[in-house]
Amino acid sequence: MTQRSEINSDGAEPRGGPVIDAGAELDPVHPVPTPVRHRPGGLSADEVAERIARGEVNDVPVRSSRSAVDIVRGNVFTRFNAIIGVLWVIMFLVAPFQDTLFGFVILANTGIGIVQELRAKKTLDGLAVIGEAKPTVRRDGVAGEVSTSEIVLGDLIELGPGDKVVVDGEVAEADGLEVDESLLTGEADPVLKRRGDRMMSGSFVVAGGGAFTATKVGREAYAAQLAEEASRFTLVHSELRSGISTILKYVTWMMVPTALGLIVSQLVAKGDNVKDSVARTVGGIVPMIPEGLVLLTSVAFAIGVIRLGRKQCLVQELPAIEGLARVDVVCLDKTGTLTEGGMDVAELRMLDGRDEDRVRTVLRALGESDPRPNASLQAIIEACPDRQEWHCTESLPFSSARKYSGATFAEGSGRSSTWLLGAPDVLLPPGAPVLREVDGLNRQGLRVLLLARAAGALDGPDATAGARPTALVVLQQRLRPDAADTLRYFEEQDVAAKVISGDNAVSVSAVAGKLGLPGAATAVDARTLPAEREAMAAELAANAVFGRVTPQQKRDMVGALQSRGHTVAMTGDGVNDVLALKDADIGVSMGSGSEATKAVAQIVLLNNSFATLPSVVAEGRRVIGNITRVATLFLTKTVYSVLLAVLVVCSQVEYPFLPRHLTLLSTLTIGVPAFFLALAPNKERARPHFVRRVMRYAIPAGIVAAGATFTTYLLARHHYSGPGSLAAETSAATLTLFLVALWVLAIVARPYTWWRVCLVAAMGLGFLIVLAVPWLQDFFALRLVGTTMPWAAVAIAATAAAVLEFAWRWVDRRFPA
């Protein structure tokens, strides 16, 4: 499609008036726009001030993070905080200070969560400002960048390839302006826009340029609400978070009837001492709640955001950290990802004895015919000095779909000529002699463009038919210095890398080969790929390098990989990558990429460094792997707490523990070690089925811990007698429970490093100090009486540890993750 200039010198509307798509469906959100008088110079400063005063400004609050109020509310007002808060108040009324310690732990946990999320918010908000799209607006005849929120009604906004349409409007100037509205309508084909056509916010420019007048701003603009939601920092829509929510739901169901039974049984068992009965009832209920699990998940994610922020990586959707950790295939666009954006003209090769001066003149004119030249054209402009003035009468902007651009010129001599510049294998028929020479250059990793003189008109049905090759433009691409190391990292981490590029397949193969990509020697021309999804997936599985890929094919290739169960990440920086970025499980855009790619990507590498990706992958693996570890600790506690309560109810005996005992145990075997384990390095690739993997360990561990503890308690009830017997029984049961819980921690901490061993040992030492120091014995009501029962408690714990080792090995074989 071509576009002649439709901008009259006086700004008058061309004959025919505004053009509205005949097949377009009208709706209340998008009525036919009211014609707007085109003002080439845009609004004046006074007019802008008037509109701001009237509130006609694009004030949609696009946030990169939750507000401070939302963060505080989300951490404080939780279901379990409410339960613990009520129990805490009750304990203040009926029990000593020691039995209220669990409430102070919750306060500390909540405070840590709030502080870490606020730190993450500060980091995200700062990065969002850096990465914010700044549209070019013409005011008082001068074009300048402004913030999206500063656009006012009636502003004249300039557009170029890759620019996102940020408000609704009406086309005022069009020069081959092609807009992709697929993110809004689902229609993949670009739409040619002419003066008077409507522009929809959320669409983006794929070719050509122009300007449009803003007719709807703020919340009235189409897709404004969607854009706000898509840009917002969120903790939802991740397997990890939804898995934890599922676990908490089941915990609540188990906790309510168990707690009611425990309350009744304790009132019956100790009817003469209501306060002690209430204290032991609360002691049974509190440990059922895995309150720190949600906190540590939030903290781990928040710290991940902060760490990545320091590396100039903007995480637009928090679960993207988790998602990239699950990725097993990463699709890479060559230009801008493996290579740097800029290029250099290495050589001009004349064909059939063409005049070099004339060729350079044509190339310079082609470069200047595009007001927004891409990297290839920019290199040509710099290499070809301005020789003479040619007037462009018609232009065909470059499009990733057609792989070439063109223009018709009125030459200084009065003659007219039409030229095409693009991929040689697209402009020439198969088997053309020139293609052999091009193939040799491509094998060296060089990019080659063909300059050809068109035989017909640009707007003809086949502009390339009969094109006469004139010269080859050989471009030298700049490899990213960190690309080879990054590809090597993905190989080591069992992540398959697929290079998907619109360039010649042989050239792409050469570049990938220089970077050491496995399978780079064999390149596939995407024009030969089958359209059927399963057949395409088979080709993708067998090969690693693909050239001449169209934007729609990139999208289809992502879908084909996903159809085989792969979790796919897509990186890119150009408009040809937008559809694939949107459909991929994780979209990664370069900071220098187009506004459209940054808008649909979950992760933006603001420093344009491909080498940042391993950090994102590692951060996600750290979060998921470590949360899986600590979730096992928390849920083991929940399981043994529920089972102990059930056993107590069925046996009609006093609950063995006060809140202070379980606060001590939780702190030493879960709280403190979980905090360190949650933030430790972890390179294990994330695996699915979070709930199943956690519960298959937590359930047997909880059963063993509850059984061993209750056995010790029953033996102690038969061994001790007299007024202080309950305290002695509790101490023996506490010793067994601590040792079993410590062994669970020792298993979860594997594989051992020096600091993990020290962590487990320090927790054991902490408990010994409590047993050895008299005032701590009194504070926690722990005093081992005699030697028979304490050693029996140790023996039972040792037996339970052996059973645990056997049970977890059996679970690994019987229920593999």
From TrEMBL:
Q: Where is this region: Disordered?
A: 1-41
Kindly give the membrane topology term recorded for this protein.
Multi-pass membrane protein
* Gene3D superfamilies, sorted: Calcium-transporting ATPase, cytoplasmic domain N, Calcium-transporting ATPase, cytoplasmic transduction domain A, Calcium-transporting ATPase, transmembrane domain, HAD superfamily/HAD-like
The residues covered by the P-type ATPase A domain are 135-229
For this UniProt record, give its keywords in alphabetical order, as a comma-separated list.
Hydrolase, Membrane, Translocase, Transmembrane, Transmembrane helix
Q: Which Pfam families match?
A: E1-E2_ATPase, Hydrolase
Give the source species: Streptomyces pacificus
What molecular function does GO assign, one term? ATP binding
What PROSITE patterns does the record point to? ATPASE_E1_E2 (PS00154)
Where is the chain membrane-spanning? 76-95, 101-118, 250-269, 289-308, 630-649, 661-682, 694-716, 728-748, 755-776, 788-808
Keyword Methyltransferase in record: no
The UniProt entry's GO CC annotations, sorted and at most eight, read:
plasma membrane
- Compartments in which it is found: Cell membrane
Q: Which domain of life does the UniProt lineage start with? A: Bacteria
Q: What is this protein's name? A: HAD family hydrolase
Major location category of this protein: membrane
